[in-house]
Amino acid sequence: MSVLNVDTIANAAGSGPVALTKQSAAKAWGSFNNSGTTINDSFGVSSLDDDGTGDKGVNLSNAMTNANFSTTTNVISNDHSGSNNARYAMCNLKTTSSVDLQSSYIDGAGVFIFYDLAQDVTIHGDLA
Asked: What phi and psi, each to the nearest 5 degrees, are found at residue 7?
């Protein structure tokens, strides 16, 4: 059995961290509150835009090669005042430097309602 213990992995020149440009690690991820522009925790996310009810703009710290990267998003299940109604998370629009997320729920009458729900996102792809 081998054990590898390190404090830092540096680039070949020894001058900085290893860049994740063509590898499969997540390039950005974040956890966001249900309203406003509060970021609970993130990596590779520079800021949020509040684009309206149930609509958030996630701005990336580093641009992606193109807008064909992969996003995975979900809403926090215990959000929306304890309601047991179905909740939805969507990625509405992607650019090389941002992702537009929307969240909604189905009310008791079966109506689709845009609503500010706490949301998570993970982004995989190639950095520019």
From this structure: -95, -35
In a domain, 22, yes or no: no
pLDDT of 21: 62
| CATH number of the domain to which 87 belongs | 2.60.40
- Cα–Cα dist 41/43, whole Å: 7
Domain count, the chain: 1
Q: Is residue 37 part of a domain?
A: yes
More confident residue, 75 or 16: 75
**Long-range contacts (CB closer than 8 Å, 24 or more residues apart) made by 89-95:** 89/117, 89/119, 91/121, 92/55, 94/67, 94/69, 95/67
